[in-house]
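quick one, 337 residues, struct below
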Amino acid sequence: MPSPEIGAGMKRRQFLSVLGGAVAAWPIAVRAQQPDRVRRIAVVMGVADNADGQARFAALKNGLKTLGWLDGVNVRFDVHYTAGVIDMARVAASEVIALAPDIIVANTNTVTMALKQQTRAIPIVFVQVQDPINSGIVESVAHPGGNITGFTSADFSFSAKLVEVLKEIAPRVVRLAILRDSSDPSGMAQVGVVQAAATSFGMELTPVDIRDADTIERGISSFARQANGGLIVPATPFSTVHLETIIAVAARNKLPAIYPFRYFANSGGLISYGTDNLDLWQRSASYVDRILKGEKPADLPVQAPTKYELVINVKTAKALGLTVPPTLLTRADEVIE
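---
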C-alpha cells in the first residue's frame, strides 16, 4: 500500500498535468473563436465628410463594437464620402471594389446603385435607401436576392406627412415649393407624392430644380417673391450637402420650410420630421455582423425604420412670425428654444 506522501504526490502530479493540458489547450480554443484575419469593411457615404457624416459612421462603429468587432483589432474600415455627387459615387464604388473588402456598407440610393452596377459578389448592406424595390436594388423586402440587403429610410409616401406638418405650423401657406434634383431618381419620385398631398390641402405645388448653390439661391428666392409660400426639402444627398445654403436662403426670404432630418432643425431650419438616421446606422451593424459570420445578404430581409423624430426650432418660428401650436409642441421629440 503506497504511503500517504506518495499518494498525495501522485494526486498533485495528476492535477498539474491536467491543468497544464488545459492551459495549453486554452489559447487554441480562444483562437478558434476569433476571426482568422482582420476583416475589411468599406463604408461609402452619400454625404460630405462633415459632422453629420462622421456621426453616422460613429453609430455604425459603436453598433459593431457591442457585437465584438473592434477597429484595428479584428476589423479595419475604409471610409469614402461622395458629397451627394453621382460621379463621385461611381468613382468611390470603383475604388472600394478594387480594395476587395469583405463587406460594403452603402449610404443612399445613388451610392448603392453605383456599387450594384460594379459588383454582384461583394456583400453590401445599405442604409437610408428609399423604395429599394422600385429603385431596382432588391427583388423583394422579404427575399432581397443577390448580394444586397439593408435598412430603408422613410418610404416616399411619408413625404405627404411633411406637407401636413408644414400646414400645421404655417397655416397660411397656400403655395408650396419642393426642391427637385433631376439627377436623383429618389428625389424625383417624392415630387409626385407631395403633389397629391398638396392638392388635398388646396395648395399649388411648384418644383424648384436645383443643381448647385447658385440654383438654390435663384430658385427659392424667385418662388418666395409671391406671398404665402412654403418649402418642402426632400431627403436627398444633395439637400444634406447644401443644408446651410438652403436654410439661409429660406430664412432670408421669410419662407417657412420643413426638412427631412433632425440636423436641419439643429442648424436653424424651422422644423424637421423624418427617420432617426443614427438609429438606422446603429442597427445596420447587426447585418454586418451576421454576414461576416457567414450569413448571406439574400437571406436577410430588408428592414424599415422604427424611429422617427419631430424637431421644432422655436427661435426660427419666432423670426418667421409663426406661433407653434401647442398640439405640435407636445408631439415634438425636441424643441429648440
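The first helix runs from residue 4 to 33.
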